[in-house]
Amino acid sequence: MRIPPLYEKPGWQRFFAGVAVGALISWFVFLFQFGVLQEKQIQLLTKQQSKINDLEDRNNTLIEDYEKLNEENKSKLKIQDFKVEFANQKKYDLGKLNLHILSDAVMQNLNHLIGKDIESVSKNKELLRQAIEKEYKLDDKVYRLKTYSIYFDTTLEITLNIELVK
User: Fold this and answer.
1) pTM higher than 0.90 for the full model?
2) Lower Cβ count inside 10 Å, N or C end of the chain?
C-alpha cells in the first residue's frame, strides 16, 4: 500500500504545519494557565495551612489557660453553705426549736462569708471564732457557744459546745 503523495500539495502541507504549530502553541498556553492556577492553589494552601497552625496554637494556649484556671479554682473554692452542729446538746436538754434558733443566729453571723475563698477564711480562724463565740439569749437564759471543731469545705461545718452563762 502506498501513502498518497500529499507532500506535493502545498495546501495540505500548510494545514498540517498549522496543526502542529497550533498544537504547540495551545500546549504552551495550557502549561502557562495550569502553572498559574497551580501557583494560586499553592498560595491558597499555604495561607490555609498557616491559618490552621495559628488557630491550633491559639486553641492549645486557650486550653492550657483553661486548665490553669481550673487548677486555680480548685485551690480557691468558695464557701457555699453552712452546717452547724452542737456537740453537747443533750447536756442542757434544749429543744429542737431552741437549737434551731441558736444555729440560725450563728448562720446570721456567718452570712457574710458566703462566696468567700475557703483559703482566706481558713487563714482567719480567729475572726471566725470571734464571730461565733458570743452570748445568745434564749428563754431568759444566756448561752455562750464555744467552737469545738471547724471543717473547711464548700460547706463550712462547725461543731459547737454550749455553755450556760446565766
Assistant:
1) no
2) N
